[in-house]
Amino acid sequence: MAVDELDTRILRLLLERPRTSVREYARILQIARGTLQARLDRMEREGVITGTGPALSPAALGHPVLAFVHIEVTQGHLDEVGDALAAVPEIVEAFSITGGGDLMTRVVARDNAHLEDVVQKLINLPGVVRTRTEVALRERVPHRLLPLVESIGRTVGR
Fold it and tell me: Has keyword DNA-binding (predicted)?
């Protein structure tokens, strides 16, 4: 979906001030509330806006250890293993990948011993051949989308 300059301004505002009302967004942007709502509805329908819930911190929830676990899977068992990963609450994301492995998961844990327990659980899943774990030491760039939105907005404006 192509976003125009107004869409970019709306997305920037949503990212910068996520708890603001639609009425207030419309006032800030100096557009009609109906126009704003129609744009929001379209961007939701087309998958640009995928959620409105709060961002939660696993560390604040007692899981400060973050690791990336690469999983090699027996051929033909990718879907089964992927489905099994959904039952492991410490896995906060999982992706099929190219390169060294078949799946990459983002795992949170209470401490290193808990991380080892989670990895052992993954190793014992049917279809898992081996895993490789990388522990994150410090977040250098937090999850962000505003620079991308602004870049797209600059490109559209040309």
Answer: yes
